[in-house]
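Quick one:
INPUT:
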């Protein structure tokens, strides 16, 4: 998806060159498509007076439009802050803001919902852009100071307030950090109010963004808003190898996408017997070696004959287990395996390009030799036999 300005011309994307500041569609992080924007309000119903404002990266807050300003997505506004004011962009307006506030359990009369002062003036925008341009250099200098003080912390991001009166330093740390001396040096070095805010590793990856192993942008920085716990059992249920390098994301934790299909796998596994359940037959005791959830089959091997695997369906395995519980005799797994082979239908692969051979355009070998001899005679100037 792209904004309405990111159209292509002659196959080449033009790009709106707003660097993620456009608000017409999904160029912003964690953007929400306003599917109620084309619907008019019923008669006598006033529009919702709260808007959603996005600041740096995915930080969003709700604000009251007490001045009844005409706001739309992408407008730069000056909002209430402590102290001074902050500058952000309107990311959502209308009735969908009410839905978002209800989803995030934010009440309109809460003290967290501040108000919008005005639409940002050119002076506000100039100051905002000027301090945004200083953030990378200050982040580098802040990391050098933290290393010099031997603090076990990582400063991952810096965000200036819109009026340049405060700078928020986002950091990650395994243990509690005593940064009292650090704040003093920051205040003396950068000459501004300092606020330290600790975030988790997943929140850090969401703020910084990046490309995942799937080739797409990280879910946490594009659309994922809640971080649910992911355990290694999710990988076991999906028959994935427990390789930390493949299962871990850029945050160092297990990938959030391991939970996406977990419910489907758990629903399919309800029809399968437990893998630690043994099958008792007259020929011997069989142990489960492997399962295939997509095909609905299991492979069993007799104890002592681990190289010979027998393929059974989940229904057949459950039938044998039921017979074992009733203490009924089961001959062998081969009886069920033969039945399974008879039920399987061989796929009918047809040649979609016809039944002709791939070498149908090649000349016979004898004809190729004759052509080569003709070429040699022509080079030597001798007449051919057919002449």
């Amino acid at each position: 998806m792209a904004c309405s300005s990111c159209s292509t011309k002659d196959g080449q994307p033009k790009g709106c060159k707003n660097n993620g500041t456009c608000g017409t569609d999904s160029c912003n992080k964690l953007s929400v498509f306003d599917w109620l924007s084309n619907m008019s309000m019923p008669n006598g119903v006033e529009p919702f007076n709260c808007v959603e404002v996005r600041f740096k990266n995915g930080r969003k807050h709700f604000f009251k439009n007490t001045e009844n300003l005409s706001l739309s997505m992408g407008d730069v506004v000056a909002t209430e802050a402590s102290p001074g004011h902050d500058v952000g962009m309107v990311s959502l307006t209308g009735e969908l803001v009410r839905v978002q506030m209800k989803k995030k359990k934010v009440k309109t009369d809460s003290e967290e919902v501040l108000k919008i002062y005005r639409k940002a003036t050119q002076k506000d925008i100039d100051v905002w852009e000027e301090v945004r341009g200083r953030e990378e250099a200050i982040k580098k200098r802040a990391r050098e100071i933290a290393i010099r003080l031997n603090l076990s912390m990582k400063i991952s991001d810096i965000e200036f307030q819109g009026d340049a009166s405060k700078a928020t330093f986002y950091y990650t740390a395994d243990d509690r950090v005593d940064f009292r001396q650090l704040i003093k040096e920051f205040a003396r070095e950068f000459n501004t109010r300092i606020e330290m805010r600790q975030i988790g590793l997943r929140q850090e990856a969401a703020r910084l963004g990046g490309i995942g192993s799937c080739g797409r942008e990280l879910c946490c920085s594009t659309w994922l808003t809640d971080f649910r716990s992911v355990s290694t059992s999710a990988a076991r249920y999906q028959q994935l190898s427990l390789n930390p390098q493949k299962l871990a994301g850029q945050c160092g934790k297990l990938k959030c996408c391991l939970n996406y299909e977990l419910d489907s796998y758990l629903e399919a596994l309800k029809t399968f017997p437990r893998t630690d359940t043994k099958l008792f037959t007259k020929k011997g005791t069989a142990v489960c070696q492997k399962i295939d959830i997509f095909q609905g089959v299991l492979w069993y091997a007799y104890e002592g004959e681990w190289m010979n695997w027998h393929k059974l369906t989940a229904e057949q395995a459950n039938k044998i287990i039921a017979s074992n519980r009733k203490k009924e005799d089961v001959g062998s797994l081969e009886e069920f395996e033969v039945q399974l082979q008879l039920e399987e239908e061989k796929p009918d692969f047809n040649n979609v390009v016809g039944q002709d051979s791939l070498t149908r355009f090649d000349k016979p070998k004898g004809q190729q030799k004759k052509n080569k001899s003709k070429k040699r005679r022509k080079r030597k100037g001798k007449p051919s036999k057919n002449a």
